[in-house]
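Something for you to look into today, if you have time. What I am after is a single protein written out in full by you. I want to see for myself how the chain folds. Could you add the entry underneath, on a fresh line?
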Amino acid sequence: MEKNIYSVTTATLIAFFGLFVLMPGMAGAQTTPVGSEAAKAVTEPAKPAAAETTEPVVAQAAEPAATQPVNAETLFGRVVEKARALAAGPYAAPEQVTDEGLNNLTYEDFQKIRFRKEAAIWRDQSLFEVQLFHPGFLFKAPVSINLLEDGKVAPLPFDKSLFRYDGEGVEEKVPADLGYAGFRIHFPLNNPEYKDELAVFLGASYFRLLARDQFYGLSARGLAVDTALPSGEEFPSFREFWLVKPAADATSITLFALLDSPSITGAYRFVITPGTRTAVDVDTVLYQRDGGHQIGIAPLTSMFLYGENSTRHFDDFRPEVHDSDGLLMHTGSDEWIWRPLTNPRHLRVSSFMDINPRGFGLIQRDRDYNNYMDFETHYHQRPSLWIEPRGEGWGKGSVRLVEIPSAEEINDNIVAFWVFDAPFSTNKPVSLSYRMTSLSHVDQANHLARVLLTRTGWGGIPGDTTAQPRSVRRFMIDFKGGDLSTLHPEQPVKPDIQTTKGKIDDVVLHKLPGTDTWRLSFRLQDTATNPADMRAFLTLRGQRLTETWSYLYEPIDAK
């Protein structure tokens, strides 16, 4: 299934509740496809070739060996220096594949070019193996790949014998020096006898991760530049990679990447540790080439078509369709905030201001298959990605959430990232560290209950002679877990509800019979045409029992 990633332009900024919400201008938001989620489909495990053998890939040194052995730390220093040197000069766009036959391959034809898994890098030498992607179709800019083995760095030359060309007439079009589009890392994640896909680096600065018992869903990126700004988005690319050969029994793998774009360059170190929760420790040094840009740190890209909170109808047998259903934030002040995702009718950008955030991520919280009823997509097993800053705090800034209108599940229409208040300087580098974890759920301290689901609908009374407008809304939020679930239904649990616009009334809170779930219900009215930014949480005698539910309602959503 081909999946598009969209760039966006926007307009007006309004402030609510310590966050900003960016609304479209009079002309409306524009969306321009800039990439494709065909990357998601082409990263399915390659089929082995029957009765065919190929020797594992071995890097060939193009330069004399250095007098001093190279280790991972000194290699990172070299990548940092490369990033600095790149930023000091003018930007040069990466070279593209020139053969029109490769560029014009259909998705189906591109799928017929398959890496021979018996030729994987470090096959039978380590728990980790690496397979390579062929350029063509949407992936028209080859990247340089190097290997660090036994203290020596050597480039990995292109070899088309590593691929099976099942499409008619394709192999003859492939030049001898084509290069590779990217790579994927394999590891015995679920079965000790089989090496599953663990991570994929393919296309611009996109990469994806899997933990145990997960299926590919949302993506991560190196950087997001000018996302959702009227000037249009800039997409940095990883131009070169260095893969460090792991020891035979190593349970982590290290790789480095050089990022480049018209406005910024960067050196990246990724240390990937697979497991039930796959963790990636990221260190980066960034050099601003051109000032005045919005730099999004640790960006995540996902898809939300519809869920239990949606007001738009889709003619589909499945109850819900999404890779992620909420943005979760752990603020510097130790507040946990849950913002359910939406598929808005026009572009929406929310900015959650914070100081030294403890974490944020796009989460697939609903893990019940019956809420998706789709064996093919496995939405109930899609990963969540959680970002935790490391080292010194990140200071003042905001978590940005971009929600883009979408009519199909092939579109990645959700983006989340961190933006610093202070602009980057072109005179000195910025060094950052964070941990990215692919997981199924985030552990929240303080025994707080979580938002289980959000539902909304018309808030009028059926049959009432006084017709209520569609903008009158009823909201129902279910909370579950923590100390809240152990409380007797008669305990004096109180809701704390706030809104920036309109009036909230008809508030009801009760524990659902025979369950450990508490339901909060209320009505919102008198918003006119104004968006209402709402917050709600539950307390017992002044002590907080739940995370904060955060929701932006726009009257246009009810039309």
The radius of gyration is 25 Å.
